Amino acid sequence: MSTTSDTTTPLPSEEDASVLDALQHQVAVFARRAEQTRLGGLGQIRNSMDRAAYLLLNRLDQEGPMGVKALAAGMGIDSSTVTRQVAPLVDSGLVKRTSHPEDGRAVVLQLSPRGQARLAEVRASRRELMAMLTEEWSPEEREAFTTLLTRFNSTITTLHSQFSAGADPVSTAS
Known about the structure:
Elements: H1 14-37, H2 51-63, H3 68-75, H4 79-91, E1 95-99, E2 107-111, H5 113-133, H6 139-164, H7 169-172
Helix pairs in contact: 2-5, 3-4
């Protein structure tokens, strides 16, 4: 691989460029298909919860009660965005606001019992969809795809953080 003089990122070989072109195309197709279908599950639950709500509820379920700032930081979005997205979840009783156990002045968000039940329904529906989409895959293929997609998403998160912090991700990507 050769490098250019103004960056430390190596240029891809022709073979690598071809694979990278195919990858970027497949990621674009995936994004379009995911948005078209919303990959929201099957049956009556299908598309009954938007992506933002699902991700917020899932994070609260996995990490427990937390403040808006911590939730926003963990999701890589603005506190104002979290506040706007959480409001309907609170109004619908899926999330509740409570006092911080150590600092009664601070507010933390947590899943309500109703939110836990609703999240379980949505997860089951989405799990059924993933099973259907990968029914011809071996368990090892499912595991490998999950591992690679997780790694891909982690890299995107890191790159986004570098952009947000004003760093030049091209020179820090190696």
